[in-house]
Design goal:
383 residues; Growth Hormone, Chain: A; 0% strand; single chain
Length: 383
C-alpha cells in the first residue's frame, strides 16, 4: 500500500513544465494541479475513520486501490478535464491509505516498534516517490503518448497491491458489527493540534518542493532531465534520513528536539536556494535530511499520541484533513507569487520562514504524551 501513496503524485512535478506547454496551463493552473491532491486529502480524510468503523479497514484499503487504478488511468487520457478529474479520483483513494495505515500500525504493532514500522513504510513510500520523480521525464521523452503515458506508469504497482490485499479481506470485521465504539475527533486536545500543524507544515514543504523544485532549477539553466534527477536526489536523501531516524532515536520517547531540528534543516535548505542557488546539491541535501525525518515523525506521532487504534484513526483524520489543507496552500501560493514577482526569491523566503514555524509545532508534537479524549464522547460514539 505504501508503494502507491506517492508514486502517482511526485512525477507530476518533473513533468509540470511539459504538461503546461502541452495543455496550455499557466503557472497558477500548474500550481492548482499540484495543490489539488492536497485539497482532496483535506476533504476526504475526515470521512475515513467513520467509514473504517462501519466497513472495516482492509475492505476500505482494497476498494481504495481499485479507485486509485481507475483514477490513474483517467488522469493520463488526452484531456485537460480528465487530467484534473483523474487527479481528484486518485487523490481520494490515496487519502484513505494515508489515514488507515497509522491506525493499522497502532492496532497491530507493539508500542516500542511503532516508529520503526512507520519508518519502514515511509521508506518504501519515499523510494517509489523518488523513482517516479527520476524516471518520469525520461519516460515522457521515450514512450508513445509523451507525458500522458508517463503519468500512468505506476498503475502496475496499484494492481499488484490490489491482488495482494484481496485475501486479507476474509478476516476483516467492521468495528460497528463487533460492538466497538467510534472514537471522536480530538478537537480540544492541544497536542492533537500540534501534531496537526506539524503534519501540515512539513507536508507543505514536501509537496511544494516536489511540485516546483524542477521548475526552479530549470528557470536557472538546468535541463528538465537534470532537474528531474535533482528531485530524485532530494528524495533519495529523504529516504536515507527516514530509514536512519529510528536507529538514531531508538529508546527515546521524547522527540521534541528531533522534530524541531529536522524542521530547521528544511528551513536552511530553502535559505540556500535563495542565497546561493548554485549550491542546489547542498540545498537538496538539507531539504532531504530534514524532510525525511519530519515525515517519519509526523506519521509516527499520529500513532504514538493515540491510546488505541480508533483514536489513532481519529487523530490521523484530523491531522491529515486540516494538515493537508495547510499544505495545499504551498504549491498554489508559490505559483501565484512567482507569476506576480517573476522571481523565486520571495516564494523561497516564505518557505524558509515557515520552516521555523514548523520547528515550533514539532517541538510541541514531540512531547511523550497521549491526546485527551473525553470518556463520555467515546461512550456516545460521537464527536
Amino acid at each position: 500500500m505504501a508503494a502507491n501513496l506517492r508514486t502517482t503524485l511526485t512525477g507530476v512535478g518533473t513533468l509540470l513544465p511539459e504538461i503546461e506547454r502541452g495543455s496550455g496551463l499557466t503557472s497558477s493552473w500548474g500550481g492548482l494541479l499540484s495543490t489539488l491532491p492536497l485539497l482532496t486529502f483535506a476533504a476526504t480524510s475526515p470521512l475515513v475513520a467513520r467509514a473504517s468503523h462501519r466497513w472495516g479497514s482492509t475492505r476500505l484499503l482494497v476498494a481504495s486501490l481499485g479507485v486509485l487504478a481507475v483514477g490513474t488511468v483517467v488522469r493520463s487520457l488526452p484531456s485537460v478535464i480528465c487530467l484534473f478529474a483523474g487527479t481528484v479520483i486518485l487523490s481520494s483513494a490515496i487519502a484513505f491509505g494515508n489515514v488507515l495505515l497509522p491506525a493499522l500500525i497502532r492496532r497491530s504493532v507493539p508500542t516500542h516498534r511503532i516508529q520503526s514500522v512507520s519508518a519502514l513504510y515511509v521508506t518504501v513510500m519515499g523510494l517509489m516517490a523518488a523513482v517516479s520523480s527520476g524516471i518520469s521525464a525520461p519516460l515522457a521523452h521515450t514512450v508513445p503518448g509523451s507525458w500522458h503515458t508517463a503519468l500512468a506508469w505506476g498503475v502496475a504497482f496499484t494492481v499488484a497491491a490490489f491482488f495482494a490485499w484481496l485475501p486479507r479481506m476474509r478476516g476483516d470485521k467492521p468495528q460497528a458489527t463487533a460492538g466497538g465504539s467510534h472514537s471522536p475527533v480530538p478537537w480540544r486536545s492541544r497536542i492533537a493540534w500540534q501534531v496537526t500543524f506539524f503534519m501540515g507544515l512539513q507536508s507543505l514543504a514536501f509537496y511544494t518542493a516536489v511540485a516546483w523544485l524542477p521548475s526552479i532549477l530549470i528557470d536557472r539553466g538546468a535541463s528538465s532531465t537534470t532537474a528531474g534527477w535533482m528531485l530524485f536526489y532530494y528524495q533519495v536523501v529523504s529516504l536515507a534520513a527516514s530509514s536512519l531516524l529510528p536507529l538514531l532515536t531508538r529508546g527515546r520517547h521524547d522527540q521534541r528536539w528531533t522534530a524541531a531540528g529536522a524542521s530547521v534543516l528544511v528551513a536552511a535548505g530553502f535559505t540556500v536556494l535563495v542565497a546561493a542557488p548554485a549550491l542546489s546539491v547542498v540545498a537538496c541535501t538539507l531539504l532531504g535530511l530534514g524532510g525525511g525525518a519530519s515525515l517519519v515523525l509526523a506519521l509516527t506521532f499520529q500513532s504514538q499520541r493515540a491510546g488505541s487504534s480508533g483514536e489513532a484513526a481519529a487523530l490521523a483524520g484530523m491531522a491529515q484533513s486540516i494538515g493537508y489543507l495547510v499544505a495545499a496552500a504551498g504549491p498554489l501560493l508559490l505559483g501565484i507569487l512567482h507569476d506576480t514577482t517573476h522571481s523565486w526569491t520571495l516564494p523561497l523566503t516564505v518557505l524558509a520562514v515557515l520552516g521555523i514555524v514548523t520547528a515550533v509545532a514539532g517541538h510541541g508534537a514531540g512531547r511523550d504524551r497521549h491526546i485527551a479524549v473525553p470518556h463520555e464522547a467515546v461512550g456516545r460514539g460521537g464527536g
